[in-house]
Amino acid sequence: MQEKAYKLLAIQEKISNNEAKALIDAGLVSAHGKKLSVAREMMSEKTIFSVAKMEKPKLIYEDENIIAVDKPAFLECENLEKIYHSTLLNRLDKGTSGVIMLAKNEEFRQKAISEFKAMRVKKTYLALVNGIVSEEIKITDPILTIKGKSGAISKISPNGKEAITNVFPLMVSGKKSFVKITIETGRTHQIRVHLASLAHGIIGDEKYAKSKSKRMFLHSYQTEILGLKFIAPLKGEFNEFGFDIPKNMQY
Fold first, then answer.
1. Could you give the count of Cα atoms lying within 13 Å of 88 in the half-sphere of its Cβ?
2. pLDDT at 60 over 90
3. Spatial CB neighbours of 90, under 8 Å, sequence gap ≥ 6
4. What is the distance between the alpha carbons of residues 76 and 72, in angstroms, rounded to a whole number?
5. Angle formed at CA 171 by CA 193 and CA 179, multiple of 5 degrees
6. Residue 108 and residue 227: Cα distance in Å, rounded?
7. Whether pLDDT at 149 is above 80
8. What whole-number distance in Å separates Cα of residue 22 and Cα of residue 207?
């Protein structure tokens, strides 16, 4: 006998169907050694599910104008607005971890928006990617984003908008690399699309790199805005795949 995955998970974990769906959608549920991505997938009633624990966001900084938070992978950015009762200034994909900023008042929000529009916000990311990156790379291919009911998808296109991504090699292990990334523009899925176009797709990026892992290994490490600098320490899980990244390494 078979049943929908979320219904079986709800029974196993003694939770509601909606809670079970949310866990699967967040990428926290595995079965038979593989992460589930479709809550309605038909599975055997004997299936045993493994459920990863969702980390909680960590406060990095707060004053009268701004809150900076270290967002864990799998958490939707919009949930942070509910938790901190403030307005998002930037967003990260659900699978990306790292610095998220929220404005506590409208005056500061408008100042921050102006900084983003003028491209004066500095953002540094860290990632594990496929392939050997042995020298600096500057990617300038324009990106076109198409938004639909099922979400946005981006691609390199001569009809796209300017997009600039800088990639710096840090470590190599086997046929995978640990890299630092800075972006001069902020197109949707920019880093993921640019890296995938060079066969250096991010490990765990199912959409653009066709790579499956327990998470997408992209982390927003540092953001600078209006004289403020926020750093989200790198997670220990980035030491997988043979890497040995020092805890206090500066980027």
1. 14
2. yes
3. 99, 100, 101, 116, 121, 223
4. 9
5. 25
6. 13
7. no
8. 19
**Residues identified as active-site:** 93
How many distinct helices (H) and strands (E) make up the chain? 5, 17
* pLDDT tens sequence across 160-201: 999 999 999 999 999 999 999 999 999 999 999 999 999 999
Which run of H or of E encompasses 17? helix 17-25
Give the gyration radius of the chain's Cα atoms: 19
pLDDT surpasses 80 at 53: no
Q: What integer pLDDT is reported at residue 72 of this predicted model?
A: 92
Residues β-bridged to residue 59: 69
Distance, CA of 199 to CA of 56 (rounded, Å): 33
* Dist. CA 111–CA 107, nearest whole Å: 7
pLDDT at 26 over 90: no
- The conformation of residue 45, written as its DSSP 8-state character, comes to T
Q: Facing residues of 61 across strands?
A: 68
Q: Which long-range contacts (CB under 8 A, 24 or more apart) does 231-239 make?
A: 231/60, 231/99, 232/58, 232/60, 232/70, 232/71, 232/97, 232/98, 232/99, 233/70, 234/126, 235/97, 238/126, 238/128, 238/178
Phi, psi values for residue 172, rounded to 5°: -130, 135
Q: What are phi and psi of 166, to 5 degrees?
A: -110, 130
Task: Round to whole Å and give the CA distance between 16 and 134.
Answer: 49
pTM for the model: 0.84
The two three-digit tokens of residue 20, written as one number: 């079970």
Task: Show Cβ contacts of residue 52 under 8 Å, excluding neighbours closer than 6 positions.
Answer: 28, 29, 30, 214
Q: Give the integer Cα–Cα distance in Å for 77 and 139.
A: 27
